[in-house]
Amino acid sequence: MSTAPASVARTHRRRTAVALVAAITALAAVLFLSPRRTQVRTVAGPASPYLSARLDSSHILRGTTETYLAIALAAPDHRVTSRAPTSVAIVLDRSGSMLGQPWTDAVASAKVLIDKLGPDDELAIIAYSTSADVVLPLGPATGARRAEAKAAIEAIAADGGTNISGGLKLGADELARARTPLRRVVLISDGQANEGIYDRAGLVRLAGARAATGVSITAVGVGLDFNEETMAGIAVAGRGNYHFVENAADLGTMFVAELGSLGETVLTHAQLRVEPAPGVEVLDVIGYELTRAGSAVLIPVADLRRGEHTKVVLRIRATVGSESVKELAHVTWTFEELGKG
Q1: Pick from 227, 262, 297: which residue ends a domain?
Q2: CB-based burial label for 127 (10 Å; 0-12, 13-18, 19+)
Q3: CA distance 334 to 25
Q4: Mean pLDDT, all residues of the chain
Q5: What is the DSSP letter of 85?
Q6: Measured distance CA(156)–CA(159) in Å, rounded
Q7: Which residues are CB-neighbours of 119 under 8 A, at least 6 positions away?
Q8: SS3 163
Q9: Are residues 198 and 292 in the same domain?
Q10: Half-sphere exposure of 202 (CA within 13 A, CB side)
Q11: Residue 21 burial by CB count (10 A; 0-12/13-18/19+): exposed, middle or buried?
């Protein structure tokens, strides 16, 4: 796991055991056996403001049963006093449908955002039409690089198809090299995808998958004919913001608010590790990608803003025999907490 400077972020680890006699840190779900089924009662363990878990039913049948394990995650409600350094990949739609005022607005939007970044931030520029290209590799947003980025954008010509998915993937790949605790793709487009993944549902799934790895996505709609449903869907699934460029004079205020929202992020680079007990198997995770590491599963979790809650639901298969207490899994949550020195 990459780490931010110690003054900005601390790496934390929270562990809980589900269906234990006693919790390790957060919760125990003790299984009381009746002749035909296992009753589930949750028993509070040592308090944790971050992590809890429960099963979807108060009873489990003896034998082999599929059920759902819900892991609730909560971010602390402390206020971050200053915005942490941020890596931004501006993903510009340079397709033929952007010719005219949409392209003018897109260029203006990108240049205003570039000017709002500082030398502690990082910047990359991606442009896409039928395919996607790195116009400016990720690097510090110094004055010289900001000037270079604006000049490079000025030299781009709009032409070709609209491969939004290609642009998002390349932007997220570029941010994989980020050295800052926060990573944000800013997609500037009319949302009229016709290459790569071009259906709205597919683009929304892609945005959600990237957000789960810690790369949030803001969508900026330009042009009178932009696809609002697609752009808003990408922003919501990407855990970013949605903007529409109606008046170029509002761009400065819009991007001040955009970067300010990043200052509300308090937990980043988060991952759940679920280690099932013997006789228990994790079948899948609803709405999240997972990686298997032996019997354990690793689940990336999107960044959380102050006071925000989220839930990860696992479908599990458990075999309950004659034992009076059945351990289901150990859950470990690691993350970086921003704004606490």
Answers
A1: 262
A2: buried
A3: 14
A4: 80
A5: P
A6: 10
A7: 140, 141, 142, 143
A8: coil
A9: no
A10: 13
A11: exposed
Q: How confident is the model at residue 168, as a pLDDT?
A: 97
Provide the whole-model pTM: 0.71
- Mean pLDDT of successive 10-residue segments in the chain (341 residues)? 31 45 31 40 45 76 85 82 87 93 90 92 97 97 96 94 97 95 93 94 93 90 87 89 77 78 80 88 84 89 84 89 75 80 48
pLDDT value of position 324 = 64
Residue 7 and residue 22: Cα distance in Å, rounded? 35
State the pairing for strand pair 239-244/296-301: unpaired
Q: Which structure tokens are listed for 177?
A: 């090299």
Residues 225 and 122 placed together within one structural domain of the fold: yes
The one-letter amino acid at 86: T
Predicted local distance difference test score (pLDDT) of residue 146 = 96
Residue 304 resides in a domain: yes
DSSP state of 32: E
Residues 195, 210: Cα–Cα separation, whole Å: 19
SS3 content of the chain, % helix, strand, coil (to 5): 25, 40, 35
Q: Which strand (E) or helix (H) includes residue 148? A: helix 143-154
Q: Identity (one letter) of the amino acid at 107? A: V
